[in-house]
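Input C-alpha cells:
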C-alpha cells in the first residue's frame, strides 16, 4: 500500500518553516522580552499588561478551585461581582490561565503574546496562499498582518485580546473559499468557528473586525462578481451566498 506520509510532510514543511520565521520575527519585534519573560511584562507600564496578568492569575486560581474564573470576590468588597465583560472575551485570559499551571502568570502572559504574534503571521500566510498560491507573497502577507501598526499599538499597551487576529484571517479565508471556490458545508462550519473565535478575543473585535470583514467582503462579491456567488440552476443550499450567510450566522450564534 502506498503511504501518504511523504506527501503530508511536504505539505506541512512550508507551514512549519513559515511558523518558525514568524516566531523569530515575534521575538525580534518584542526584544528583549524573550530574555525577560519572568521579570518584565510586555508593553508599557501605563498599559493594560498588569491588569491582564492579574486576570490570568485569578482565572488560574478559580479554575484550580473548580469555580467560575470570572467571579471576582476579592473586588468590590464585601460582595464581589461577576465580570460579564470578561465572559465576552475569554481568549484574552483563559489560554494564558491554562498555561499558567505550568509557568508563572507573568511568563504565561508574555509567552502568549509571542505565540499570538506568530499565529497571526501563520493566519496571514494561510490567507495569502488561498488568494495567491505563492509562498513568497503569502509569507509577506503574514508578516504584514503580524507587524501592522495597529497590532504594534495594541502590543505596546498589553491588549492581548486585540492581538488575536489569526482567527480573523482564517475566517476571511473560509469566506473567500465559500464564495469563490465552491467550498462546501465543512468549510462553512470551519469558517463559523473562526468567526466566533475572532469575536471571543475581545468584545471590540465584533465591531471593528467581524462586522467590516463580513460586510465589505459580501458587498464586494455582490458588486464585482454577482454571478459567481448567485448561480443559476443551483439549489438554494448550494448557492455560495447562502453558504456565506450561514457561515456568518453560525459564527454569530
Amino acid at each position: 500500500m502506498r503511504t501518504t506520509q511523504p506527501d503530508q510532510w511536504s505539505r506541512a514543511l512550508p507551514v512549519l518553516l513559515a511558523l518558525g520565521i514568524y516566531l523569530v520575527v515575534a521575538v525580534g519585534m518584542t526584544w528583549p522580552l524573550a530574555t525577560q519573560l519572568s521579570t518584565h511584562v510586555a508593553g508599557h507600564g501605563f498599559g493594560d499588561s498588569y491588569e491582564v496578568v492579574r486576570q490570568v492569575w485569578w482565572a488560574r486560581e478559580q479554575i484550580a478551585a473548580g469555580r467560575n474564573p470570572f467571579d471576582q470576590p476579592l473586588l468590590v468588597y464585601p460582595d464581589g461581582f461577576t465580570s460579564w465583560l470578561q465572559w465576552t472575551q475569554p481568549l484574552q485570559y483563559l489560554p494564558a490561565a491554562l498555561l499558567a499551571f505550568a509557568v508563572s502568570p507573568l511568563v504565561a502572559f508574555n509567552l502568549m503574546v509571542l505565540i499570538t504574534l506568530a499565529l497571526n503571521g501563520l493566519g496571514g500566510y494561510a490567507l495569502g496562499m488561498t488568494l495567491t498560491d505563492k509562498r513568497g507573497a503569502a509569507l509577506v502577507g503574514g508578516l504584514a498582518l503580524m507587524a501592522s501598526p495597529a497590532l504594534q499599538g495594541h502590543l505596546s499597551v498589553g491588549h492581548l485580546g486585540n492581538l488575536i487576529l489569526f482567527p480573523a484571517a482564517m475566517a476571511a479565508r473560509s469566506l473567500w473559499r465559500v464564495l469563490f471556490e465552491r467550498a462546501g458545508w465543512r468549510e462553512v462550519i470551519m469558517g463559523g468557528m473562526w468567526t466566533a473565535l475572532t469575536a471571543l478575543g475581545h468584545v471590540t473585535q465584533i465591531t471593528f473586525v467581524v462586522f467590516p470583514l463580513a460586510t465589505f467582503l459580501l458587498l464586494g462579491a455582490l458588486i464585482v462578481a454577482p454571478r459567481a456567488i448567485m448561480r443559476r440552476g443551483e439549489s438554494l443550499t448550494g448557492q455560495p451566498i447562502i453558504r456565506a450567510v450561514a457561515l456568518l450566522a453560525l459564527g454569530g450564534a
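Residues 105-132 form the longest helix (28 residues). The mean pLDDT is 92.
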